[in-house]
Design goal:
The strands form three sheets. The chain has a four-stranded antiparallel beta sheet with strand order 1-6-7-5. It has a four-stranded antiparallel beta sheet with strand order 2-3-4-8, covered by helices on one side. The protein starts with a helix and ends in a 6-residue tail after the last strand. The radius of gyration is 20 Å and the shape is elongated. The protein is α+β, with helices and mostly antiparallel strands. The model has no long low-confidence stretch (mean pLDDT about 90). Helix 4 packs across helix 7. The protein contains seven helices and ten strands. It folds into two domains: about 130 residues, Alpha-Beta Barrel (N-terminal domain of MutM-like DNA repair proteins), CATH 3.20.190; about 120 residues, Helicase, Ruva Protein, domain 3, CATH 1.10.8.50.
């Protein structure tokens, strides 16, 4: 499943390609799974809107539109699920199988949502009057933004959690955007074993983990994310951070720091990779 760096890369790529473009028509498939809002409602709400900004919130791609005096403000929210892709293409390029949404743009290009397994989701966020009055930013996601959280707030999130630190990192109501890949890589860099109880971590350990999470996520964004399955960006290009993985999917291979074989266990139902020597 695409995690924060992959979603950030996709959002940035889509923004670069379609910001300022107008949606002339919107089409959605008849498959119900990807639709959090009825297709006809989405198509009507999006047609005629001008894309102002595309950005990431947690693991969601969020589309902001230029204000229109006669229409209520909305945002279009896309979750990529496990195999979802947002690709900008010329209309002459055949639409691939499993295309479930297409925005036809004034520039002549199309923004396509393609998802073979249909775990992705598309929907509208409709602003409430209270949101507008308070000038809130709209869709905010389920948890806290890991790239902006302070050390003090990070400690507060985890220091009383009576669960493994790996499970806590995967809890999207705490930090949204961190998934299996970046939890494993961050714990390795922080020298913390994934099964350790979050509540038993010391303040220095939590501070190391805070720094590791932010460093790993920023490096992964810079390298376009991790392409370990079928992830590609808005131009159809693969990421490169998988070449920097220390532990993720390196079971049995020597640790790049100490040479000890990397181990794989299951934590919170997820395959988890760590070095038994470097991580304590």
């Amino acid at each position: 499943m695409p995690e924060l760096p992959e979603v950030e890369t996709v959002a940035n790529g889509v923004h670069q390609r379609i910001a300022g473009d107008r949606i002339e028509e919107a089409w959605f498939s008849s498959k119900p799974e990807p639709m959090k809002t009825p297709p006809a409602t989405m198509a009507k709400a999006l047609t005629g809107r001008t894309v102002e900004r595309v950005h990431r919130v947690g693991k969601h791609v969020v589309f902001d539109f230029a204000p229109q005096a006669e229409r209520d403000p909305v945002q279009w929210i896309v979750h990529l699920g496990m195999t979802g892709r947002l690709v900008v293409a010329d209309p002459e390029v055949p639409r691939p199988p499993h295309t479930h949404g297409v925005l036809m743009l004034r520039s002549g290009r199309e923004l396509r949502f393609v998802d073979a397994r249909r775990f992705g989701r598309m929907g509208l966020h409709v602003f409430q009057k209270s949101d507008q009055a308070a000038e809130l930013p709209g869709f905010r996601g389920p948890g806290t933004e890991p790239l902006r959280i302070s050390k003090a707030d990070f400690r507060q999130l985890f220091h009383k959690r009576r669960t493994s630190i790996k499970a806590a990192l995967l809890n999207q109501t705490l930090l949204h955007g961190v998934g299996n890949i970046y939890a494993d890589e961050s714990l390795f860099r922080a020298k913390i074993r994934p099964r350790r109880m979050a509540a038993r971590l010391t303040i220095p350990e939590l501070d190391r983990l805070h720094s590791a999470v932010q460093k790993v996520l920023r490096e992964a964004i810079r390298l376009g994310g991790s392409s370990v399955s079928d992830y590609v960006d808005a131009a159809g290009e693969r990421g490169f951070f998988q070449l920097r993985h220390y532990v993720y999917i390196r079971t049995g291979q020597p640790c790049l720091v100490c040479g000890t074989p990397i181990r794989r266990i299951v934590v919170a139902g997820r395959g988890t990779h760590y070095c038994p020597v470097c991580q304590r």
